[in-house]
Automatic annotation (TrEMBL), chains A, B:
The lineage of its organism: Bacteria, Bacillati, Actinomycetota, Actinomycetes, Mycobacteriales. This is Galactose-1-phosphate uridylyltransferase. It comes from [Mycobacterium] holstebronense. Keywords: Carbohydrate metabolism, Galactose metabolism, Metal-binding, Nucleotidyltransferase, Transferase, Zinc. Residues 212-363 form the Galactose-1-phosphate uridyl transferase C-terminal domain. InterPro entries: GalP_UDPtransf1, GalP_UDPtransf1_His-AS, GalP_Utransf_C, GalP_Utransf_N, HIT-like_sf.
Length: 363, 363
């Protein structure tokens, strides 16, 4: 992949063009009269009852909500007056979210919550990064529909953003993800994902690293590598295997459709993968999303979450992987996260992981 | 409150009638040809990557789904042939869920996950209890609409169930809750709640108790009492105060509408409240739900979660309280739990807790 072309939007936001071999982006000036950006659009607040940070981003209430296709801000805008991507065409683009939950980089952002008065409220600036990644200029379609080379370009863009953001001051965790489908609240139909640079370790990641640390103390090995080996040995929940990757429904799956995709070799994030491994990753990832759409013969609403880690310190035992999940529990019914899940984090699954894996294998 | 009348449904499930003063239930035989119950309808599986139990309850897929009002299984069934409540009328009833996620009590249920091989899969029988509580025989209406004495009867029934289930073998935590509204997946419109007896500490409760233990080590005091005092001192997020209770939007609220209700006196669960306090609790709880329905001038979809604790051991620092939350972020829009929340537990709130508190105060 050649280096992306850098561009700047009317309100100063970064825009990056990632191009397929032989293609050259031709951006035009962004002529939209955009309001200046709020340098600190959000606040972090620490929930002392759970030990978790919450992002309070109050001005996002008016963000773009289900625009008609002809007003899609993610389609190419050759006039420079209609779109977040002022250009006649593009392959893959990444730009800063116009309505970010996190913005700005600050090295002195102290989020330690240890030594405080027993009754104080703890907050911090909402620094970090929220980016949008458009998978294709085509308003319809999905990641699963991309040609192989195009899917690889998206993955290369993820790798580029991961390397860049991990190097920024105050970014603790880089999270590439996709929300797909109105059923989970997606307000823009154009195929796209998002990339967050969190200024703290997210609660689920922190919990997983705690488990991995305890496992290493007890057994002297990496938790995720041991579990991957166990899934491969048992076999009943395997969905797909390639030279470099293994996909399985986890033993204790929480979602009606859930698949985890691990590289067979322990790495921390996308930047550690060889070109061969990255190629394989793009192919198997796309393959899994294709199976998702065939479960109910309709586009499946899903969330795709890339779990990435730094290679040292508290994140040293992290193991790069993707967690794919859907709330659709049958062709016509959704799984809702009601009080047991939402208030107590106690998940109740309606299907056995083994039956879901068998179904996904045969698709 | 007089002792409830005990009854047995056709498949052997318990049914309890709680009656208003001067009223006497007149149940009839349950004549429905119900299938025998599965004694172990689910399995617990331990997610070693997060340290959390997941309930796999695969036969609930066919549970009752949005029946028409005339076929409502929670309305009184005087013939004994149509309803979960075979009686011409009732005030408040509690019965075992016909499609339970947890069932049966077992003292030898060992769920310790400590000393295991590094790559083993850990599971346990899905023991515990799932009960349904019908707030009223009236198919329409809601908790907020109940007369004061009737709301108190519901709260008394919660207290009864809490005392009973805390005494059962293998029940670690008693969770009284209500899911209200189709938007969060409620499939029966009849006003009702649920009561779970979990065989493990739910993940959110465990996280809160960890925080409370660390707080006591550092400060020597109860975390929740300190935070309640801080909220009362600051005042900006208070929604309602009575002699015995304080309701506030928490400093780090995760949901578009969220209110926590604490007794001013530290207790562990409903069974610790005096009759005066229970009276006050029913009144302020009903008052809060009334405010909820006035926010958007329409019935608000909500979840109500009673956080209850045992008074000793690992739960000794627990502080009884209710967490009320709604996913409705405006009159027309819902907050969806997409990848940041669902995959990483990283919540992003679209409104400031202070603005929500101000709105709820004035309603």
């Amino acid at each position: 992949m050649s280096a992306p072309i850098r561009w700047t939007l009317a309100d100063g936001r970064d825009l990056l063009f990632f191009a397929l071999p032989g293609r050259a982006p031709v951006p035009v000036a962004d002529l939209r009269p955009l309001s200046p950006r709020d340098p600190e659009p959000s606040q972090l607040r620490f929930d002392r009852t759970t030990g978790q940070w919450v992002i309070i981003a109050a001005q996002r209430q008016d963000r773009t909500y289900k625009p008609p296709a002809e007003a899609c801000p993610l389609c190419p805008g050759p006039s420079g007056e209609t779109s977040e991507v002022p250009a006649p065409d593009y392959d893959v683009v990444v730009f800063e979210n116009r309505f970010p939950s996190l913005a700005g980089f600050r090295r002195d952002n102290d989020r330690s919550a240890g030594e405080t008065a027993p009754n104080s409220f703890i907050s911090a600036p909402g620094n970090g990064r929220c980016e949008v990644i458009c998978f294709s200029a085509d308003h319809t379609g999905s990641f699963a529909d991309l040609p192989a080379a195009h899917a690889l370009l998206v993955v290369q863009a993820w790798r580029h953003r991961t390397a860049d953001l991990l190097g920024r001051a105050g970014v603790e965790q880089v999270f590439c993800f996709e929300n797909r489908g109105e059923e989970i609240g997606v307000t823009l139909a154009h195929p796209h994902g998002q990339i967050y640079g969190y200024p703290y370790l997210t609660p689920r990641t922190a919990a997983m690293l705690d488990q991995a640390r305890a496992h290493r103390v007890t057994h002297g090995t990496n938790l995720f590598a041991d579990l991957l080996a166990a899934e491969r040995a048992e076999g009943t929940r395997i969905v797909a295997q390639t030279d470099h990757f293994t996909a399985f429904v986890p033993f204790a799956a929480r979602w009606p459709v859930e698949v985890h995709l691990y590289p067979n070799r322990w790495v921390h994030n996308l930047t550690d993968l060889t070109d061969d491994e990255l190629d394989d990753f793009a192919a198997v990832y796309r393959n899994l999303l294709g199976r998702f759409d065939r479960i109910y013969d309709a586009p499946l609403p899903y969330m795709a979450a890339l779990h990435q880690y730094r290679s040292d310190g508290a994140q040293a035992d992290g193991y790069f992987h993707v967690e794919l999940m859907s709330i659709k529990r049958s062709a016509t019914k959704l799984k809702f996260l009601a009080a047991s899940e939402s208030a107590m984090d106690a998940f109740i699954a309606d299907v056995t992981p083994e039956s879901v894996a068998a179904r996904l294998r045969e698709l």
